[in-house]
Amino acid sequence: MKKIAAVLVISSLYVFATRLCAQETFREYTLPGIKQYDFVSKVNHRPYRLSIALPMGYSAADTTHYPVMYILDSDPNLPLAALIQWNMTYDGELPNMILVGVGYQAANFMETVPYRTTDYTPSSDPKADSEMTAHHHVPMVSGGAADFLRVLMEEICPLIRRRYKTTSGQGLAGHSFGGLFAAYVLLNHPEAFDRYLISSPSLDWDNKEIKKEEMHYYSAGHRELAARVFVSAGAAEPDSMVPDVQELVAVLGSRKYKGLQLSEKIFDGETHLSVIPFSMSRGLRALYPN
């Protein structure tokens, strides 16, 4: 009986230890130092979610202020950007900064596609809307970039300035449609940000609408474009991505805009998605030389 009791005790301890180990080992992991804030815009009535990555050692008690970089497509780009920035800051390659991911109240990235299609496109393209609606099986409506810029400038940026210790400098980073939006802001309201990270921008949108807007900006007599700008793409991206990026860079360079500090990088062997961490790493270094 004593042997049986001992076996039962040992067995019970083993089961308890196994369960305890499982509870302690397998749990949700979140990146430290990232805050989230949900709100519905009064401008366009869309449900946004901000993810804020603070610098290591950030304290409301000291007098240190930080530059801010706004990252479009917060899910998944903000965690990636935060890890890259934290690591490079640790090694002295980048200054400390606040990263603000701008996303939507959605369960996953695919649920954000209708929102970003509207917000990131500078013009309405009914044909593209119809094609994207058929492909994604949800209604797509383009041409909301002007309203989204208002959301950024009237709601999001003031909120971050009120809540956190920021400097006057602020940057904007976007990939794909997000890169298209960043290019739109640069050529319509360049004063909104002083640094632009434009990654694999969809410059073929609506028969190259961005090319027309750059021509309009220059023809209107503008000769100043005071901003640091980094434009990139992957060499293995399909269609006209690389030629379109190179054409934009060539045109901007030929204008000799006063105050424009422009750099470009085409990453060998990288596709439309694999290029994102390379664009983020190289872009942050180009825009924020420490």
Element layout with pairings:
Elements: H1 2-25, E1 34-40, E2 47-53, E3 66-72, H2 74-90, E4 98-104, H3 109-120, H4 126-136, H5 145-163, E5 166-175, H6 177-188, E6 195-199, H7 205-219, E7 224-234, H8 241-255, E8 258-267, H9 276-287
Parallel strand pairs: 3-4, 3-5, 5-6, 6-7, 7-8
Antiparallel strand pairs: 1-2, 2-4
Structure description:
- It is built from nine helices and eight strands.
- The protein has a single domain, classed as Rossmann fold, CATH 3.40.50.
- Strand 6, helix 7 (205-219) and strand 7 form a beta-alpha-beta unit.
- The protein has an eight-stranded mixed beta sheet with strand order 1-2-4-3-5-6-7-8, with helices on both faces.
- The N and C termini lie far apart (74 Å).
- Helix 2 (74-90) crosses helix 9 (276-287), helix 3 (109-120) packs parallel to helix 6 and helix 6 packs parallel to helix 7.
- By secondary structure, the chain is an alpha/beta fold.
Key features?
single chain; 290 residues; alpha/beta; Rossmann fold; eight-stranded mixed sheet; 9 helices; globular
Compose a concise summary of this entry.
This protein has 290 residues and is of the alpha/beta class.
